[in-house]
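Data card: per-record layout.
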Amino acid sequence: MKGNEAKSLRRRILAVAAFCFFLFGVVLARGYQLQIYQGEELGARAERQLTKRISLPPIRGKIVDRNGVELATNREVSAVYAQPHKISDLDKTASQLAELLEEDKSKIKRKLLSKSSFVWLKRGIEAEAGKKISFFKIKGIGVISEKRRFYPNMELAGHLVGFAGIDSQGLEGIELKYNELIKGKPGYFIAERDALGRNIYPRGLNIKDSTSGGNVVLTIDKNIQHIAEREVGEALRKYKAKSGMALVMDPNTGEVLAMAVQPAFNPNFFRQSSPSMWRNRIVTDTFEPGSTFKIFLAATAIESGKVRPQDIFFCENGKFKLYKNTIHDSKEHGWLSVESILRVSSNIGAYKIAEKIGKSDYYRGIRGFGFGQKAGIDFPGERPGYIRAKKRISPIGFANLSFGQGLSVTAIQLVTAISAVANGGYVMKPYLVKKVVDDSGQTIFANFPTRVKRVISKETATAVTAILKRVISGEGTGVRAALEGYQVAGKTGTSQKFDNEMGEYSSDKHISSFIGYLPADDPKLAILVMLDEPKDSYYGGRVAAPVFKRIAEQALAWMQVAPKEGGRLMQAQLHPLSKSDVTGNEYSKSFAKNGDGKAIPDLRGLTLRETLVAMGDAPLRAEGNGVVLEQSPLPGELFSTKAGYSIRLSDRQQGGHAL
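The structure for this 659-residue chain is written out next.
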């Protein structure tokens, strides 16, 4: 018996030992699985469960004009947050914060009663106010520093620059269009929390700062922008117009120098204005161009070879019946040349010209100038305008089309089209952003002057310019746009607005406009001025032409474009800023930190070897082979010898880009 009992005991001991070894093996295998095989994943999961990451908004890059003047920047503000579970005296804390934050106590108290482990109490308060709250060391209340978008020039260029929200997202304008390049990367700070999700210790030192986005350099000149906004604003008040706009462009490059829309709004307080006030009407709003469209009729007619400037047409003494409709002129005219038809703005004469060249050639011509399609400007919300399909244009519709009715255009389309006449025949792609650079000055994005197509010959452009110069002189409708010492080429426009409710053109609502370029034989500026529903007077020659003149004379003075015909360079009433104000800002001074800030020479047409000899050791980013077609910065602009420059080469002397 004793032997059997001993054997039984040994078996039980071995069984227990085997079971223990088995359990140990299971624990060991599980430990290996948790610590080695799944260790990284489980560690990350634990971190997510035990900590809470509080995002901080990124720091947006600056937006500056072509001279480096800041139009959008950032300033330091404070954000106040609460950890409700840490607050011991709810009523006292709410009272104290209500006074410090200038908020309603009940509103603060509702936030402090939140079951969330973290709540924002107020963001975007002045930095000094944040320091004051920190000084009181209120239990459960914290303050962190943030960057808030700030527009130092208030209303100036508000429709162009746009604005960003409190979360640092671009919402309108350039802020929206280039948001991905401007916005930067968000930072964060981390708070630990217990199993119930309550914060138990804010890891204040564990903060990852937000990083800055790219700085946008616009084509806009702040001073010309200011001039345009001021003059349109004064005209708006004088004529009690509904709205107004002015667009200034370099016709040789497509660079927009000013984009003024009135009434204005302050992007620092954009919520105080309605969304209808935010839109940039120059790219979003369409209208009938009226007699300004006769420019493109004349250009198409001459380019077709079917009409010469000296050809004459009978203008029916001011009244011409076409089927059941009658075309009227403001005055009675008999035989007029093409030049005189534009000079006196005869609608009947315009129809006679269009009739001679035919629907197909006229339609092809105006489409070639870019009407009925987007101009392609780098701005959100651009509309293409509207031209009825050729096969759907009736005889009456064709007549209307000849003098700018029955279609819709945008301001950017009109100025882009007239720039093609000014520069010798090339439609240029309009643009607002020259480049985007990082904080070290390195270019991360750049736009270049781009030729879209040749739409008319240089000879046609010269002939049309000669016609448009006559519009400004003598008995022309645009005589009030004339500048002493400068030749102006331009055209007035007065169009009736279509009343959708009545289904006919209004007798008392008009759009008054003037479009032109100067100096006529060597254009530096193309300018459009438009007033919507002016009162008392509505003819473009009376209302818009004088505004064109005032903008042009001040802009030319600022640009130091000297008169060639006995006039003197304007000195007075230029603008409230001097050139030292423009070039003395912090952004421009950054050139001194990164290099000598020299003006870059004109490299276009040089080979790569010639470029390297001319530029020395400055860093180069080159694309293509052959000779330089495009460069950034453009000729004459400041560049940093550390940041370097970019060129695009081509073995073609003529390409798709403007030189």
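Known properties of this structure: The mean pLDDT is 83. The chain has 23 helices and 28 strands.

See the next section for split statistics.
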